[in-house]
Structures are given as C-alpha cells and as structure tokens.
Amino acid sequence: MSGGSQVSGGDRAVGESEPALRGGGWPLPALKYWRKRRGLSQVELGRRADVGSDYIFRVESGRRGCNPDTARLLASLLEVDLQDLRSMPDDALDTKASSDPSRSKVVYRFVHRAYLKIILEGAVGSAYAAMDEREVEDRCERGTWEGVLEIVRARKREIEYLQDALGARGVLGDPDLPDAVRSFLEEVLESFPDLDIHLLAAARRREPSEEGHEALTKAMRELL
To answer: Phi-psi category of 104—alpha, beta or left, where left has phi over 0 and alpha has psi -120 to 50?
Structure first.
C-alpha cells in the first residue's frame, strides 16, 4: 500500500496493520470504513456474521479487539482481505491531512457540535445527537434503564427533525456547504440507529431487573 512513509504513534507507519491486543483480539480500524463502503449497517453486518451489532460497534470504536476467526469472517463478508480491515486505506487517511490534523479536527468538531446543540435544543428540547458517542455512553452508564430509554427516544426525535430539516432544504446537497460540515452532519444522521441499539444492548447487560430487561429488549426490537 502506498503512503507508508507517514508515521503514526510510536514507530508504526500509517497504514501498517495494528498489532494484536492483549488477549489475542485484533484491532480493525478500517472495519467501519469498509462496512459503510458496502452500504451495510452494524445490525446487518452483525446478523451476517452471527454476532450482535453491539459487538460490531465496540470493535469499530476500538473498545475491544476482534476475535481472529470473526475478523476473517468479516473480511470475507465485506469482500476484502483481512489486511484491509487491519489498516486504514490511503484515501481515508488523506481526508485527515493537514499541518496538524488531529488538533484541527478536534477544534472544528467542537464548533460543529456546539452549533448543533443550540439548534436541537431550540427545536426539540434536547441535544443528545450533538454529543460525542463516548459522552452519551458515559451518561447512559451512570443512569437508570428508564434514563437510557429516554435518551434513545430523544435521539430519535432529534434525528427525525434533522432528516426533515436538512432534506427539505437540500442542505447536504448544497455545493457551497463545506465538506467538513457535510461530513459531520452525515455522521450524526448515520449514527442512528446503530449507536442507539448499542446503548440499549449495553444497558440490558447491566440491568438486573426483569422489567428493565424486557423494556430494553422491546426498545431494541423496535429499532431493528
């Protein structure tokens, strides 16, 4: 693969496969890239691989490594080599190129989220869709199962509002819209319902009560 002269953390070249995690799991940094290229949701890919969508979510977000056999199956399902899942392709890396890419991306993402929060709170009274995924996860982990349901329902209202508002005005198709803003908005819209299913599944694993377990299961089925 070209572009191997760039260097990432430590001495590992950008595009080089990630080393196995402790315990034998493999990081698959390009899994999300190839899944989206194939037009599959986390739910659909998980169904084809006979694993939960929550498993796919955690592998994609780097929260866990992937079982080697499952990694090979995912590569087969996505019609790529296993190496393609273990290293980011050049065209994905090129979108991050700048004099200080990580810093500029964080700064602009913060601004985008701040504006989106103002819009959503004024329109629907909540703004979970404007939060970072980890921030939403942390909030759910600290709350009750009822709170998780409310967050997921609020996100659904927010996403539906954005879909209607952006679609009616053709915002995402506007050639004058900066690519960074378009990419951010598309990412927010595409987070539903995969992120929400993950939040519900994680809450269900933690929930000891039968009432909560059943309510969370029902909510997950409604999103599938």
So the answer is: alpha
